[in-house]
Amino acid sequence: MAPGHPSSTQAPLRRGIMFVISSPSGAGKSALSRLLLQDDPEIRLSVSVTTRPRRPSEVHGVHYHFIDVPTFHQMRERGDLLEWAEVHGNFYATPRQLVEQALGEGRDVLFDIDVQGTLQLYECMREDVVSVFILPPSIAELQSRLKRRAEDSDDVILRRLRTAETEIARWQDYDFVLVNDDLERCFHDLKQVLVAERLKRHRQPHLPALTEALLKDLRTVLS
Fold first, then answer.
1. Can you name the CATH fold of 18-222?
2. Which end of the chain is more exposed for a tag (fewer CB within 10 A), N or C?
3. How many Å apart are CA 18 and CA 16, to the nearest integer?
4. How far is CA 205 from CA 121, 168, 192, 201, in A?
5. What letters, b where the CB count within 10 A reaches 16 and e where it falls short, cover 42-53?
6. Could you tell me the residue ranges of all domains in the chain?
7. Averaged pLDDT in 10-residue chunks for the chain of 223 residues
8. What's the predicted TM-score (pTM) here?
């Protein structure tokens, strides 16, 4: 059985982490998220709901749960959303129940969300959140990546660049900041952040009992 994933009769070794990755559109958060999910079986993606139209490359239930605006408002009014934001005229949100269940089972949850969503997660569950902001190496490179994606019109690209100004200005709100000038190197650094956070003292509730047992045995040996 994988570490951190006890059986149903055992308490989890630790509470899960809400691992947030944010960036301006085109800076690489989606690519980094995909790599992390492929590389690390201990983390699962929080699949958001959105009212945005589905892109040709996207799969319902995998990339997003695509819903209409009335359904979104109903979920928000019932308190079913952990966070929500309006971006480029569309709503994005995180369903609450599955995330809270995963954390309680000691499973990490990956969030590919924007600045607005991150700040809302801080308000309700800051102790569980580890946030990473991804910066592009330059605005010229950011614009080039958006154009190479070939999924948005020129007007949409311009709107995303305008939004990037507001998002980049909030970089200091994040726990960690990485510059994605090389995807492989940036991914390596991202994994190091996750490993270090999993090993923090307060995320290992078994340590008090373990250290007490070690000290007890040591005193017996020394007596």
1. Rossmann fold (3.40.50)
2. C
3. 7
4. 23, 36, 21, 8
5. ebbebbbbbbbe
6. 18-222
7. 49 85 91 95 91 89 89 94 87 89 92 89 94 95 83 81 92 97 97 95 90 97 94
8. 0.81
